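> tool_call: predict_assembly(chains=two)
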Amino acid sequence: MHYKILMKTAKYSVTCNGFGYVLLYTLSLTLYITICFSEIALFISLLLSIMMLYASLLSDRLSIAQLINAYSIVGLKRKEIVASFYIFANTRVLVIAIAFLVAYPSIVVAFLTLSNTFIALVYYFTFRRV
Amino acid sequence: MKDVVVIVKNLWKYYNYMGHRIAILRGINATLYRADIACIYGPSGAGKTTFLKILAGLERPDLGEIIVEGYNLTLLDDDALATIRASIVSYIPQDYGLIEDFTVYENVELPLLVAGFSEEERRVTILETLKYMGIAEKMHTKVRYLSGGEKQRVAIARALVVTPSLLLADEPTANLDWENAKKVLELFIKINRDFKTTVVMVSHDARILEFANRKFALYDGVLKEV
């Protein structure tokens, strides 16, 4: 039943304050990279996106600490907690990726495929309980 | 013959502070039996929380042994300790350790998800536990909207839902007025009586000692039964 914990984590990521900032950023970014379509714009956007992701996680640090603390108390293993944090962050990565999807569909398709393959692998290796 | 739940042998724990190695726990020995209610009293900084976290497998001692229900916690790896926390030992931190944006139901559901209960089993178990704790009507309320006493009850419900052998409570009355504190302490007694759960509470408030059948004092890292 651990996928339920993953789903709860993803839902939690969406309800935290930082997600609102990510949404606003994604809207601005979509405008920016569609209007200023160039390699430099792509490079700057990627850099800004990493900073935005970090900032959004930083703004939710108390919520993340609460989540990790609660998961640790109820007996989730360390690698499961790490996977949960990954899901928390990746929910926002996927939203930011929408902006790139609009401007650079081919790059984003590759990015999403890789990202979700990685999630599947993490899920498979982490949430098996013997 | 009494059933032993916890054995602590010569437990030492050090912290590094400003380049100095300070012993926070100094050779603690204790044995707790099934259905004991143990209160550990001591001033702030005496090592109470550290001791409780070591019992919960959240921290490791530098020396000594802890055996809980036959499992030597000092020999177990982190994953095994997590499994112990999911089934045998429940820990209630001073700040309750709840996720404030989750509802009461979602918070109490977490240990059952880890334990692999089905949806129907979870629903029935949570409902029973919340009724037992007297907070069933708050089931769909987010924890951030609850009072301190209610949050404490939710934290106890989450700890109790997997019927652990050992229940550890860190300063369970610290954030409550004495009237609410008494209600919470009576709840621990009720849990102890109904489920034969061994309860360990730590506090700097000496008034909680009257609720225990085993009384300990922890001063400067040394534990003594009083």
